[in-house]
Specification:
By secondary structure, the protein is α+β, with helices and mostly antiparallel strands. The chain is built from two helices and seven strands; from the N terminus they run αβββββββα.
Amino acid sequence: MPKTSGGSSYSFIHIALLLLITLLARPALAYNDSYQLSGPDAPSREGYFTLSITPAPQQQLVLQQSQSATFDTIDAEFRWFGDFEQITLTGFTDGEYFFRLQPAADAAEASSNVVKVTVNHYPRWQAYSLFFIGLALFILLVASLLILRRRV
């Protein structure tokens, strides 16, 4: 029977909570300072792509973007949130982009390999031709509905 005046049931709850916190905690010694970053195998045709990290990050990381493999200049930085293993980046124009991971606290030393991503969009004529084919089919559908409605 549980005691109501602060007996052993409360100490059991404290022990259970302590055990849960211990199991979910990520100690600083478990941080991995060597990550494997991977990107798409084929060029991105749409301007967006997904980068993956192995193993799941255990510390704050920053994804750095550059136009050169040597990272002479860093064009953009993206925070890697939580322990997610993938990040999707979008809005890129045609070109070659290089990415690497850095620890958020120590920017002096790289902690991952460099990944090259090539973006090569579909040609504009292809996009416009598909749009106008769809527009013509839509107009044909609306016209046929209006004509057949008048006959009934």
